[in-house]
Amino acid sequence: MLMRYAGLAMQFFVAIGLGVFAGLKLDEWLGFSIPLLVWLLPLFMIIGMIVKILFETNKKNAKK
Q: 1-56 pLDDT, tens per residue?
């Protein structure tokens, strides 16, 4: 049980890290004067991961 939640936490942190990295690179490439994508991409990643976790936990509860 603990390993499952540790895996979810690792996915969460990797997704946030990828969102920040991609946001930095896209902001540089697009030449935005404010770090818009550095804020938006990780936010979308967090929302997506929360939705994913909700769907996964609801599937587990429905099978019981």
A: 677 778 888 888 999 999 999 999 999 999 988 999 999 999 999 999 899 888 88
Q: How many angstroms separate the CA atoms of 45 and 52, rounded?
A: 10
Residue ranges per structural domain of the chain: 2-63
pTM: 0.75
Strand, coil or helix: 4: helix
Judge contact between 22 and 35, C-beta under 8 A. Answer: no
CA distances (Å), 46 to each of 40, 42, 56, in order? 10, 6, 15
**39 conformational bin, left if phi > 0, alpha if psi -120 to 50, beta if neither:** alpha
